[in-house]
Amino acid sequence: MKARLATLVCAGLVLLAAPGAPAPRSRQSIEEVMASHPGLVDAATVVAELQVDLRYATGDNFLGRPIYGSLRTCYLQEDAARMLAHAQAALVQAHAGWRLRVLDCARPLWVQREMWKLVAGTPQQGYVADPEKRSIHNFGCAVDLTLASADGTPLDMGTKFDFFGHLAHPAREIELFERGRLSAEQLANRLALREVMLRAGFRPLAHEWWHFDCASQKETRRRYREIP
């Protein structure tokens, strides 16, 4: 397992070098903004058996409150959705009883600003993209996800989504496993997720096991429009 982990970590790192949600600035709902944005599609119409669990539509996130309002759809650029379909197919082929479960997809820039307000100037700042520089989520080209059984039971990945700390870092998984901080099962689950996402062309993030980009920052800005 250690050799396999080292291979996937190296492959990934080569690609790395008050309650209630505020309303969007426009009069449109967040669902309407997403549905009308150029290039975005409902990923569930492209990815067979995709499980959708948007955590920012609930209070189960680092904000501690829902910010997506009534949004329940995973919107992604069509390119990213098709890549995700390839990842799902590879996962089912390798593990027939497992499925991809998306936790966040396209994210409007105004949401990014709300997130930044909470962490700016704190030790957690490095885990949230500065809205002035943009997150790839703001273009619909990034996806946060985990693995789950076909009946919707999430697999154990070692930390919760939005965990800000070294235990969530793919770049430190070898060390964490050797120190007993990650179990063999947790490590195997992360490897399975990363393997199918890498095979589909996604790029991992060094400090979040759940985050994958469909293109580089430069490519994303060139090919897609940000979501206001």
Short structural summary:
With 228 residues, this protein is of the alpha+beta class.
What do you see in this structure?
α1 (2-16) crosses α6. This protein has 228 residues and is α+β, with helices and mostly antiparallel strands. The strands form two sheets. The protein has a five-stranded mixed sheet. It has a two-stranded antiparallel ribbon with strand order 1-3. It is 35% helix and 14% strand. The N and C termini lie far apart (43 Å). It has one domain: Muramoyl-pentapeptide Carboxypeptidase, domain 2, CATH 3.30.1380.10. The chain is built from seven helices and seven strands.
Q: Strand tally, please?
A: 7
The biggest beta sheet is recorded as:
5 strands, mixed
User: What is the H-and-E element order?
Assistant: HHEEEHEHEHHEEH
Main sheet strand line-up: 2-4-5-7-6
Level-2 CATH architecture: 2-Layer Sandwich
Secondary structure category: alpha+beta
Number of helical stretches of at least 4 residues: 7
Provide the CATH topology.
Answer: Muramoyl-pentapeptide Carboxypeptidase, domain 2
- The stretches of 5 or more residues where confidence is low (pLDDT under 50) are 13-26
The backbone outline, from C-alpha atoms, is globular
Mean pLDDT reading? 91
- Distance between termini? 43 Å
* CATH C-level class: Alpha Beta
